[in-house]
Amino acid sequence: MDSNRIGAFVSLVEDRASAALGNVSAHEAAVLSAIRFRPGVIAHALHGILGLSQPAVARLLRGLENRGLVRRGPARGRTVPLGLTEAGEATVERVLEARRAAMEQIVAPLAPEEQAQLADLMDKMLAGALRSRAHGRHLCRLCDYDRCSAAGCPVEARVDEIDGGVDWRNEFRK
Predict the structure, then answer these.
(1) pTM score > 0.85 for this model?
(2) Closest listed residue to residue 34, CA positions, set 95, 79, 75
């Protein structure tokens, strides 16, 4: 396999995905996505999904809160559940739609059967690369869980094999 081709393809995907984010950073988009698909998630859980330190996550949350995209719920003991505002919900919807469109544009030159083959190959590569539940959460930090659940998620299936099952939405609620 030609590593240059793989590298160029990865660069293409990264460039298109980054452009689709618009006025939010990749980390901000991941926070918004995590909250959207795990309403009530607590801040402590986000550092593992994002691969960032707790202080970095706290700064991201403050920034998103100041921009009116994230709200903190009533405290439950020492934890505070997070939610999206209407503006936050609209932002994450826009980002997910733009990302989906960008990825569809990349595979558009392929015939439908080639797209299906590519999807099968990507499923194999994702499952083969997955190391743990935490790695799965990190890989899926920008996934549209509703869309993936309908199609069958190769990452979730592999995580199920690794640790006997996962509930991606309720895992971090307290």
Answers:
(1) no
(2) 95
- Specify the pairing of strand 82-84 against strand 70-72: antiparallel
Full 3-state SS string of 119-167: HHHHHHHHHHHCCCHHHHHHHCCCCCHHHHHHHCCHHHHHHHHHHCCCC
Provide the β-strand partners of residue 79. Answer: 76
Which amino acid is residue 161, in one-letter code?
Answer: E
* pLDDT for res 172: 53
Q: Residues 46, 70: contact at Cβ < 8 Å?
A: no
Q: Which of 154, 145, 160, 156 is nearest to 120 (CA)?
A: 154
68 sits in the region (left: phi over 0; alpha: psi -120 to 50; else beta) called left
Structure tokens at 165: 């099952």
Residue 42 makes CB contacts below 8 A (sequence gap 6+) with: 79, 80, 81, 82, 172, 173, 174
Per-residue model confidence as pLDDT tens digits over 51-98? 889 899 999 999 999 999 999 988 888 888 999 999 999 999 999 999
Which residue has better confidence, 139 or 108? 108
Q: Are 137 and 155 in contact (CB under 8 A)?
A: no
